[in-house]
Amino acid sequence: MDTQKKTLGVLPFGLSRPRRPVVWIAVGLALLAGLKYGYDFGHQIGGVLLGVIAAFNAALFCSILVGSVVDRVFPDRNVDRTQE
Description:
By secondary structure, the chain is mostly helical. It has helices at 21-46, 48-73. Helix 1 runs antiparallel to helix 2 (48-73).
């Protein structure tokens, strides 16, 4: 019985393959939306400094969520996702 698993190689931060243009576009739009709305929210409740901090936080959060959703909705067809 062979217990070795096939791997695609390990890249930093868990990326096992290059991202497609659809994912880059969606994540970029999410970053821009997060920056704009995060800054507006932070500026209203605490001024410019809190606006900048909230903008970066919102941009990161939005990009993580959108990247995950796009990867789930449009899975890469070249990767075998079955478990052995």
